[in-house]
């Protein structure tokens, strides 16, 4: 019997409709019975998943990290296994899971891959796959328009980040972890559940989406140019060794600021401080390459 899959697609995804049509044809050749849905508004994605959850065996999401972030809460509620077609700009979750950007290869993984359960992060009740953060990354998110991402791809992240870094100013925050209170002056606090974020940056050198912990780093710099020096290390996750970076990890973390500050989850602004972060171990089933070490 053919597996029945809900195929949810972001029509504005960067890879375009031609590649997507080929992927849909290939999924059908692989034996999938597809229930195709496309929505202009990401806010409608949870409702679509809830409406069809009892009609399908899995959900296939075509889009980038923002589309996946819009779907994650409903995926947790429905407990549908997740297949990913990486159609976005950064595709950080796909990178973490070892899913290539080639759509035919991604389709093969959905058809023949291994079903594994991964952790999710949660902040103020909102689930996330990769990273939730406040500070610089929020300002980058606010400036990264769809048009900029579509035109420049992953280079848009670098160009926008450099402009935001130059304008950055530190803010005060309190981090509470394991009964300890830590006061910081920082330009960014990031709390990671997965490994990659922001177009291939690494949360921490040993971060994994299966390690049942959250990895926090706080960029505590005085001058904007100090971040430039850190950028190469941030690609590999070695920035946590710097004297200007505070690195912590745990299963529950709280962050407080003097006034409410926006928090972005997987590149989408979804909540504000005060923030309660926690990890949810083995929260969701995903299809990934067999025996991929995360």
From TrEMBL:
InterPro entries: ATP-NAD_kinase_N, Diacylglycerol/lipid_kinase, Diacylglycerol_kinase_cat_dom, Lipid_Phosphate_FormReg, NAD/diacylglycerol_kinase_sf, YegS/DAGK_C
GO molecular function, one term: kinase activity
Keyword annotations of the record: ATP-binding, Kinase, Lipid biosynthesis, Lipid metabolism, Magnesium, Metal-binding, Nucleotide-binding, Phospholipid biosynthesis, Phospholipid metabolism, Transferase
Any single GO CC term annotated in Swiss-Prot or TrEMBL for this entry: plasma membrane
Cofactor(s) for this UniProt protein: Mg(2+)
Residues of the DAGKc domain: 1-127
GO biological process, one term: phospholipid biosynthetic process
Record has ATP-binding as a keyword: yes
Protein name from the UniProt record: Lipid kinase
Species of origin: Hassallia byssoidea VB512170
